[in-house]
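Reopening closed ticket. The problem is back. First fold of the pair:
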Amino acid sequence: MTGFSALVLAGSRTRVQDPVAAYGGAAHKALILLQGKTLLARVVGALWTAGATRIAVISSHPGVRAEALRLGVETLEEADGPSLSVKAGAEALGTPLVVTTADHALLQGAWVERFLADVPPGAHVAALVAARATVEAAAPTTQRTWLKLADGHWSGCNLFYLANDRALGVVDLWRRVEAERKRPWKQAQILGLGMLASYALGRLSLAKAAARLGELSGVRAAIVVTPFGLASVDVDKPADLDLVRSIVGD
């Protein structure tokens, strides 16, 4: 698929320096150098390769915004939380829209192309995941947070697709859940006790999870499984940076 816009999230969750950025010797995680390029430059390059025709970076960090401008892409101010930032990006760029993060250090254009090719026809929104066996075969030492479902253990890949404006229904659901992060019982109310019970009992599969999230947000949602295990590797902690450096030989 060609002719899509892309949004790169590079926000800061706190006003203090991210420990990964400090470990990487940069003012912001997106500015860490890997093989002579910033992580942001690597992500932007992969998106251009995949066929993006317009790219914007969401960040309020002056260094990140300056790097985005150097790379020839647009900048948008981050909103109050990732969900609202995605919504603002979708409203500014339009759809179809690919969303990823600036710390997706190993991202390759081929992974994005395969993801878009595998999105089921008619889906309004899709997310990419990788199976645990696929991830561990590609990066045996990686430490991930696994989503343990009835049909296996999965890792998110920080890659999402919004086909049209209806996909914003999922963003609105995400915003509601995000707003209640300090009140788990309210999150449970939003998602529904049936879904949570199925998860707790080990009966919730990928397909059922996607169907339920789609039902809650009024869209057709899909979860796409990638064959590329490294697509799940982002730089959330210093050990992740060590891992990606070892993989690329930096």
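Second fold of the pair, where the issue appears:
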Amino acid sequence: MVRKAVTEKFKNLRKAVLTGSRTKFRESFNKLHPRDRAEYLFSQSPTARKKYYGYLPPEEVAELFDNVDIDQSVTYVTEMKTPYAAKILDEMYEDDAVDILSRISPEKAKQYLALMDNETASRLAELLRYDEEHAGSIMTTEFISVREETTASEAIEKVKKEAEDAVTIYYVFVLSDDGKLLNVLSLKELLLADKNTPLGELEHDHIVSVRSNADKEEAAHIMKDYDFVALPVVDFHDRLLGVITIDDIVDFLHEEGADTYSKLAAVSDIEVTDPPLESAKKRLPWLILLLFLGMITATLIGQFEDTIAQVAILGAFIPVVAGTTGNSGTQSLAIVVRGLASGKLKHMQLRRYFMKEAGTAAVTSLVAGLVLLGIIFAWKGELAIGIVAGASLAFSIFVGTLSGSIVPLALKKVGIDPAVASGPLITTICDIISMAIYFGIATVMLGWIA
């Protein structure tokens, strides 16, 4: 029923646009929920959107960007006239504006900053100096802070006064005269405190914060572990620089998850909107690299032509051995990358982890090998072939599983994103391993199976 009502209002908006009535359009548009306003406005064609921008003041459009992901936000801002876009960025929360400005060309960003309020532009320029991977790049300076001599009643009045412009009012940050973070009070603690008590005298637990140059991943783990909705960002002297809010962490985790998934498929820099030639240009380097690695497998198999010629049925089980080994390596890779991303793996000793993974590999390889042996014996009545294929699969899965764990951890050790050990790469490596083991065992046992 709700969606039906929204659809009806969309019809009224279209009618208002067709009749050219700006007043009727604004009346119908402003009755919608902000989420529905954003859905309507940004689902239109670029030409139609530009017309609507003329109907809507920048501060109203700025509100709608809370319902749009960052990549789309960049598209919409850059299609607007520069003065109009600058006013929208001026009205946004600082962390959202920085996200957009950091994704456009420096020249264009300077144009926007030059047209914005000087004080706001100065703060945004300062935030843009932080490395994209650091916590400081996603913080905002729009928080509520008080001095340690401020009483609880005075702090509550300040919250009421600044609530509209603050990105979060769930916490009030107590600072010393030199800006050092002394305490973090929740709104509940503030309301329950004696109204005449200076906030500097209130007891507090250990203050949890993050350095501005820490990885965003570290900030995400802290907010998850402590169930924070905002996290203070400090410098090396514990002076409060800004806060990171939960919505920015959610956006970061969403982007990280999508990026990791794309890297596992070796398509991290490819978008669905890329034209065919550009998309092909981005895919080809990995495909060509994997092609050459695949030639190693082909060359390896070629070395065992005599073995295949004498026992031709061995060729029938190449896809089974290679494919299952590749799958086991990819499974192990995905588990390790997920463990590293979540932070769980760094808390385990590597020796303990490898022992656990070796145990898992031993069980899975043994079971898979016995299953393949049974299938071949039941299907072909070839016990010797079944033993060779089953043993090869068992050894291959064991080695492939450990390879899927070792490769990303080794890359992490040398400072390379472990997700680049993509599924296709691990699969190709496992192909080489499995074929070497398969035909190696078959050649050694050739006299028996021939």
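Update: turned out to be a display glitch only; the data is intact. The first strand starts at residue 145 and ends at 147. Residues 1-6 have pLDDT under 50 and may be disordered. Please close again.
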